[in-house]
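Hello forum,

I keep getting stuck at the same step: I have a sequence, I want structure tokens, and every attempt I make locally crashes halfway through. Rather than fight my setup again tonight, could one of you with a working pipeline run this one for me? It's a single chain of 143 residues.
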Amino acid sequence: MNVETILRNKGRRVATIRADAMVTDAVERLRQHGIGALVVSNDGTDVVGMLSERDIVFALARYGADFLDFPVADIMTRSVVTCAPEDRVAELMAEMTNRRIRHLPVVRNARLCGIVSIGDLVKSRLDEIEYEASSLRSFIAGA
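Reply #2:
Ran it on my machine without issues. Output:
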């Protein structure tokens, strides 16, 4: 299974925030959407960074509550790992585990076209395993 299949099922909507937005706005957006990360994008298609719960906790430890009035650009992760719609789920699961990241923006032709989380990948893999097991049970029952 690949990322394109996941996006077809879950949708392509991506929660983004501008780099010049205040961290307080980002925290509220995370809360509103019940998500753990925002893609930082100034036009909704470029990827200039990621802002995750981890970035917020690190900034809190480093700056105290004052960081809430900082622009997102000051605390975001700038080196963003992305994936493509044709990337395979198993490979991305290994990559995310090795890099200790939980979200991958999906990029096609240098434009943001979706996002997948480790939860999306795990669910996809479990669905695939369940389908294979069901097929095997049907095959055995019919033999």
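Residues 102 and 118 are 5 Å apart (CA to CA). If your local run keeps crashing, start a new thread with the error log.
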